[in-house]
Amino acid sequence: MKKYIFNILIALLTTLPVLAQKQAQAKLVLDKTAAAFEKAGGVKADFSVQAFNKGHSVGTATGTIELKGEKFFLKTAETVSWFDGKTQWSYLTQNDEVNISTPTEAELQGLNPYALLYLYKKGFDYELGKVADFHGKQVYEVILTATDKKQDLSRIVLYVVKSTYQPVYIKVEQRDGSRSEITITRYQTGLKLSDSVFVFNKQQYPTAEIIDLR
């Protein structure tokens, strides 16, 4: 029994430093990724997203997102969304209506994949996975696991290009078994984006019904 306990202690003593090192490396990658995004100025990204439920694909979509700080303009075939840092306008193409709301942090994470870059600062453990090749680019794999078992979001897998610290792939897993996989297909930085880009313009949608949910 003493020998058994001793072996466990040895295993812990050799494993914990490795885990701590992986966590420190992961934090460094996440810090540099967040810093690179903040320094990028106006950003425009094209993306594709595939949704799964219990292992089965339930839909795919493509879109474009423009960002400046916490502001964003998101466009897909089904919806167009504007967020100016406080108010969100969501235009539903099929219904020709605009919903105005003050979104929660969780709602913003569901719309803006780049909001996920800052989640590691609270409520998540993280570690560095394998260094992999993704579509011909060398990337870091960072795995974030939610510490709060009650929240819907359970795990995030992030691929970041080693040379630029730009995210190219984000997998978001929910506790109900569903997940979304986002692939960034084009990424532009240093754009001069006016604040008006992130505000709904009624003149562009003259027939849309306005529904204020605030």
UniProtKB/TrEMBL annotation:
SUPFAM superfamilies per record: Prokaryotic lipoproteins and lipoprotein localization factors
Cleaved signal peptide residues: 1-20
Pfam families in the cross-refs: LolA_2
Parts of the chain that traverse the membrane: none
Organism: Bacteroides nordii CL02T12C05
Keyword tags: Signal
Protein name: Outer membrane lipoprotein carrier protein LolA
